[in-house]
């Protein structure tokens, strides 16, 4: 099988000092039921910000302002497939979410509550890169 690199764009979306997390549908073939940040794969020909805004709109119905990129990480999902994830800080004026079929729940959470839901890998990335220390949002 040919080696593949996937570029994924994810957003820490902030509104009223809370962070948005969304839960993948239980029917998701890859990682059902996990909580994650909104975002998805970059399509060929898109620039990074266009791709991120498109994915956020598709998954949540939200329009966002992209503040900055926060960090990037990479890992292999299979011996032939590597994922590069770029995490951005975004803001929105709305809390009204319209989930796509890919997700079945959402929450607006504070910094401490976030760690009850996200994967261990994501929690470690956030801690090791001091990402949440950079955000002026509520603790819990």
What can you see in these coordinates?
The protein is α+β, with helices and mostly antiparallel strands. The chain has one domain (4-134): Nucleoside Triphosphate Pyrophosphohydrolase, CATH 3.90.79. The protein is 19% helix and 41% strand. The protein is built from three helices and seven strands, in the order E-E-E-E-H-E-E-E-H-H. Strands 1, 2, 3, 4, 5, 6 and 7 form a seven-stranded mixed beta sheet that branches. The mean pLDDT is 94.
Brief account:
By secondary structure, this protein is of the alpha+beta class. The protein has helices at residues 48-60, 111-114, 120-128; strands at 4-15, 18-24, 35-36, 38-41, 65-78, 81-91, 103-109. The protein has a single domain (4-134), classed as Alpha-Beta Complex (Nucleoside Triphosphate Pyrophosphohydrolase).
The CATH class = Alpha Beta
Distance between the termini: 45 Å
Q: Would you tell me the overall average pLDDT? A: 94
CATH homologous superfamily designation: Nucleoside Triphosphate Pyrophosphohydrolase
CATH third-tier fold name: Nucleoside Triphosphate Pyrophosphohydrolase
- What is the number of strand segments? 7
Our count of helices gives 3
Note the main sheet.
Answer: 7 strands, mixed
Helix-residue proportion: 10-25%
